[in-house]
Design brief:
Helix content is 8%, strand content 35%. The strands form nine sheets. Strands 14, 15, 16, 20, 23, 24, 26, 27 and 29 form a nine-stranded mixed sheet that branches. It folds into three domains: 143 residues, Sandwich (Jelly Rolls); 213 residues, Jelly Rolls, CATH 2.60.120.200; 188 residues, Jelly Rolls (Sandwich). It has five helices and 42 strands. The radius of gyration is 39 Å and the shape is elongated.
């Protein structure tokens, strides 16, 4: 037998030694092969396996190994994909009855427990062998997909798409969302949902071409690549109103309507300021958009009207602002402005703007809506603030709103809704000073807005880290006058070498005037010294108090308490600003209004609680300024200034 280098395997078996000693030969008639026996083998009876038997054993072992390996791979794949169906790679059946989405279902919330299964009315989980992957070249293949039930918009309704809201796992996975008709001939462009914080995120699917017929049946496919098990998801699919057109703020001649505006994004450390100033014919300094449709009017950019001289900078130079006026007095007039995208990276956002409401019954409502939902999510529950007109609104009014941003969505938008009711009354209203019809009754109800700002508001500074370095009661322990760390401006024309405290704009006072304006003796009783600005002969002048240059130790917010007395109809405006920049002599530095009031406020002292948003390592000054100063006898008075938990120090 030729040695082929293979290892032989012996199987010993007990034999009858007499058989071998007697020379008996084995029976080979059945085709067996005679094995030669040596003397050694006769001494230890047995036999060796033949070559064909050895090959058969090897084949059986290899087949068994492949079967075990295939079973192991199948189990791992099922566990990784989280599948519960028994037909891997199969495509959803289209025989089920579609779920009809009516236009009235527009509330956005992740409320439904959607189980991953192959029940017809539930979402289902499939793998990457679905043909939909091959139809999406802009999405990388090799992942998994969650498939919705068959959906259908209400035929002939007002729906223009759907909003998918999902509670996502916290593992930084990108989910690609696509809608496909059940015949797979039409699809929407892919949208992306980003998980990471286990929050409810929403994406609008509102391609105009895809939903123009309204009644077509479709599914929503959510593709992802991460290999993790989804035991279940929370999701809601709601219908959206038909697409509205958005128009950038400006004149009709230079702006065009679009259904897909490029919204700016407001994130941590950024501040969006819409000054509404016309930089050039094609560039308006504003990131807000006018929504066309869904209302009965539009905000119009203007530089003045018969009843309003100009914007908030009109005392310096003509400035533009937005106005809303009715086309007739028989119908309600509504207009909508939508903000940039607000990332939910802070507990709240601060919205500030200037407004003027001429005539009674006018209102501005502020809505907070999830990103992408637009006017479809607007209802009574989305209103977070509102302002109504009051009599004799002569000057611009400054408003600040701190609006919470719940963690239920990753991004939001604000919508300003201006409302002028039918037959709005203008009987008790007068046009503002400097306008064409100053002092006269307005011819048309007018709602005006100017200079909008948005800034994510940081969490409150820890109280133990607060500083009292800028606190001031404007008197020493011995009752002498002092400005503490603050500095006052001086009237124009006084040279620096003679700028003594007695010549400053803001003067210390400890006794009342006894007149019908300003602080009487009764107002000063028990208060010690206060600061007073007398506007007589100083029309157009803007006196201020300023801190030295300070810097915040961290990104946080705090409160400034300002006690003031504004008594008299023509009392100048009192305003608190933050001035950013290390050059204190630069009067053109970035200036942010934090609080502002104009005219008579009360017969007694009031205290303003002014929130301050401080940026780490950004030098700034705090300024208290008087504006809109006329030749009048109405004084401004300031008492204690106290800061609560403001983590700042002098540079």
């Amino acid at each position: 037998m030729t040695d082929l280098g293979a290892r032989e395997t012996s199987f010993s078996m007990e034999g009858n030694p007499e058989c071998f000693r007697s020379g008996m030969q084995p029976d080979t008639t059945s085709g067996g092969r005679l094995l030669s026996a040596s003397e050694d083998s006769r001494a230890n009876p047995g036999f060796k396996m033949t070559r064909p038997a050895k090959r058969r054993v090897r084949i059986v072992l290899i087949v068994m190994l492949f079967i075990i390996l295939a079973a192991f791979i199948t189990v791992v794949a099922i566990l990784a994909s989280g599948r519960t169906d028994s037909t891997p790679g199969s495509t959803p059946k289209e025989s089920e009855e579609p779920m009809i989405l009516s236009a009235s279902h527009h509330h956005i919330r992740c409320k439904d427990n959607v189980t991953v299964s192959n029940t017809a009315s539930q979402w289902r989980h499939w793998n990457d062998r679905m043909p939909e992957w091959r139809q999406l070249p802009d999405i990388k293949h090799g992942g998994f997909v969650i498939v919705s039930p068959v959906l259908k918009l209400e035929q002939g309704g007002a729906s223009g798409g759907v909003l998918l809201s999902m509670r996502l796992p916290g593992n930084n996975t990108r989910f690609h969302v696509v809608a496909l008709t059940i015949d797979r001939k039409n699809k929407t462009k892919p949208r992306v949902l980003n998980s990471g914080n286990r929050r409810c995120d929403s994406v609008a699917i509102n391609d105009e071409d895809f939903f123009k017929d309204g009644g077509k049946a479709f599914r929503i496919y959510v593709f992802y690549k991460r290999h993790f098990r989804l035991h279940g998801i929370k999701a809601t699919v709601t219908s959206l109103p038909r697409l509205h057109s958005y128009r950038a703020l400006g004149t009709d001649e230079v702006t065009t309507a679009t259904t897909s505006p490029d919204f700016a994004v407001v994130g941590p450390g950024t501040r969006d300021h819409c000054s509404l100033e016309i930089m050039n014919r094609e560039n308006i300094d504003c990131d807000w958009w006018n929504i066309e449709g869904g209302d009965a009017g539009d905000f119009v950019l203007t530089e003045g009207s018969n009843c309003i001289k100009g914007g908030t900078k009109s005392d310096e130079s003509a400035s533009s602002f937005l106005k809303l006026q009715p086309s007739d007095d028989l119908h309600e007039t509504r207009a909508l402005l939508i903000s940039p995208r607000l990332r939910q990276d802070a507990p709240s956002v601060t919205l500030t703007f200037w407004l003027m409401l001429k005539c009674q019954g006018l209102e501005i409502r502020v809505h907070r809506v999830p990103w992408g939902s637009g006017v479809g999510a607007m209802d009574a529950s989305s209103v977070v603030a509102s302002i109504s007109s009051r009599p004799i609104h002569l000057q611009w009014e400054f408003r600040t709103f701190e609006i919470p941003l719940p963690g239920s969505h990753s991004s939001y938008q604000l919508v300003l809704e201006g409302v002028i009711p039918a037959n709005a009354s203008c009987e008790d209203e007068k046009c503002g000073p400097g306008s064409v019809n100053a002092g006269k009754k307005p011819k048309l109800p007018t709602l005006a807005i100017d200079s909008l700002t948005l800034e994510l508001f940081y969490e409150r500074c820890p109280m133990e880290e607060g500083s009292d370095v800028m606190d001031c009661s404007f008197q020493t322990n011995s009752s002498d006058a002092t400005l503490c760390e603050w500095k006052s401006s001086f009237p124009a024309g006084i040279p620096p070498e003679v700028q003594f405290p007695s010549f400053s704009d803001w003067k210390s006072e400890s006794s009342g005037t006894g007149t019908r304006h300003g602080a009487t003796q009764q107002h000063l009783e028990g208060r010690g010294r206060i600061l007073t600005f007398d506007p007589s002969g100083k029309a157009g002048h803007e006196p201020y108090l300023r801190t030295p240059l300070v810097v915040a130790s961290k990104n946080c917010s705090c409160l400034m308490n300002l006690t003031y007395l504004m008594r008299g109809l023509l009392t100048p405006r009192l305003q608190v600003n933050l001035l950013y920049g290390s050059d204190t002599s630069d009067e053109n530095r970035e200036k942010e209004a934090q609080w502002s009031l104009f005219g008579h406020q009360s017969e007694d002292w009031q205290t303003a609680l002014i929130p301050l948003n401080m940026r780490r390592n950004s030098p700034f000054q705090i300024e208290v300024r008087a504006r809109n100063v006329a030749h009048a006898v109405a004084d401004l008075h300031i008492d204690d200034i106290v800061f609560e938990g403001c983590a700042m120090k002098k540079t």
